[in-house]
């Protein structure tokens, strides 16, 4: 009997270890699905998602694994994408069960791989800029992360005006269920190798770039969060979202830019188009992702208010059920 227990004990430990925590199983780019290799997996197939060796949490903002995950290795493939494409992440437990946690943000970065395709790029040298962050659902204490526990995915747009080139995409969950303890936050980063096409002009500024590790500190209020279960306030860690993603360019310039609608819910995507003296806003807006996803284009003279009523000036129909979404377009 005791020998049986001795035999079983490690198996039980192993089972809970394997099913806990997780990784990005697939990334879809406008619905085209890239599948990643599982951690621990024996068999390997070509992918654009860097494989990690272990789906366990990473603790400590100074841990080298916060870069692209534990022992992340360069993937073989590079996936094509275009500005404004929708990226959809399917997070799973290591055994492909549903993602097990519900507390903490999704934060997403890009880093230029320069002239080399990203399958040859050492991510330790990456200088990352933030393109997106999402915490709790508007007016709710529920985090978007909670959707994953029922098998749903998380989507965000690539910036509408990002300049073409080789980019590493770093998408992470910071799981905060243990974040009331110092260094209790769990980092789950995942890196995907992209080649972005198009003719965008948006690039980050120097003060928007960070390294990982380096971009976060364990004492940041978004990482050590004593009140995570008692307050809905949340301060995202890391740099600001790159200005070219959040601030529209002036008309007359060459290509415009995005308008992120602040609170983690609206994923605005603006695009100034100046040929005819009007703004062209291409916009997307996700509410609770699955329930509510709209997309459209607004043509509007500079200086006009698009946000108050969020009415589309042309014959476009609104599909978002009355949520106000845009601010003044600067002329
Ligand atoms: Cu976990």
UniProtKB/TrEMBL annotation:
Its EC number is 1.14.99.56. The keyword Lipid biosynthesis does not apply. Keywords: Carbohydrate metabolism, Cellulose degradation, Copper, Disulfide bond, Metal-binding, Monooxygenase, Oxidoreductase, Polysaccharide degradation, Secreted, Signal. PANTHER family: ENDO-BETA-1,4-GLUCANASE D (PTHR33353:SF10), PUTATIVE (AFU_ORTHOLOGUE AFUA_1G12560)-RELATED (PTHR33353). Its cofactor is Cu(2+). Residues 252-275 have a biased composition (Gly residues). One of its GO terms (cellular component) is extracellular region. The keyword Secreted applies. It is an enzyme of class 1 (oxidoreductase). Residues 246-279 are annotated as: Disordered. GO terms for biological process: cellulose catabolic process. Its main location: secreted. One of its GO terms (molecular function) is metal ion binding. This is lytic cellulose monooxygenase (C4-dehydrogenating). Residues 1-20 form the signal peptide. Belongs to the polysaccharide monooxygenase AA9 family. Residues 21-225 form the Auxiliary Activity family 9 catalytic domain. It is found in: Secreted. It comes from Coprinopsis marcescibilis (Agaric fungus). It comes from the Eukaryota. It catalyses: [(1->4)-beta-D-glucosyl]n+m + reduced acceptor + O2 = 4-dehydro-beta-D-glucosyl-[(1->4)-beta-D-glucosyl]n-1 + [(1->4)-beta-D-glucosyl]m + acceptor + H2O.
């Amino acid at each position: 009997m005791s020998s049986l227990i001795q035999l079983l004990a490690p198996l039980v430990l192993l089972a809970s270890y394997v099913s806990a925590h997780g990784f990005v199983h697939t990334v879809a780019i406008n619905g085209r699905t890239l599948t990643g290799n599982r951690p621990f997996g024996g068999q390997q197939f070509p992918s654009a998602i860097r494989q990690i060796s272990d789906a366990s949490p990473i603790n400590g903002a100074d841990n080298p694994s916060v870069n692209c995950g534990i022992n992340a290795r360069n993937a073989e493939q590079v996936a094509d994408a275009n500005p404004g494409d929708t990226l959809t992440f399917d997070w799973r437990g290591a055994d492909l069960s549903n993602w097990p946690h519900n507390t903490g943000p999704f934060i997403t970065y890009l880093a230029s791989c320069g002239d080399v395709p990203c399958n040859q790029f050492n991510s330790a040298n990456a200088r990352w800029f933030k393109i997106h962050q999402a915490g709790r659902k508007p007016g709710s204490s529920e985090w978007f992360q909670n959707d994953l526990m029922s098998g749903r995915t998380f989507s965000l747009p690539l910036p509408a005006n990002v300049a073409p080139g080789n980019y590493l995409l770093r998408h992470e969950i910071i799981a905060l269920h243990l974040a009331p303890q110092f260094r209790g936050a769990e980092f789950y980063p995942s890196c995907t190798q992209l080649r972005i096409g198009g003719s965008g002009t948006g690039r980050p500024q120097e003060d928007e770039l960070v390294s990982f590790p380096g971009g976060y500190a364990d004492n940041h209020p978004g990482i050590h969060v004593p009140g995570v279960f008692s307050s809905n306030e949340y301060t995202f860690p890391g740099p600001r979202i790159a200005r070219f993603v959040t601030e529209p360019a002036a008309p007359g310039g060459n290509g415009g830019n995005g308008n992120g609608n602040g609170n983690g819910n609206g994923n605005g995507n603006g695009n100034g188009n100046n040929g005819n003296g009007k703004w062209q806003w291409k916009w997307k807006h996700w509410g609770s992702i699955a329930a509510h996803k709209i997309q459209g284009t607004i043509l509007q003279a500079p200086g006009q208010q698009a946000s108050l009523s969020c009415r589309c000036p042309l014959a476009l129909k609104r599909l978002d059920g009355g949520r106000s979404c845009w601010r003044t377009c600067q002329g």
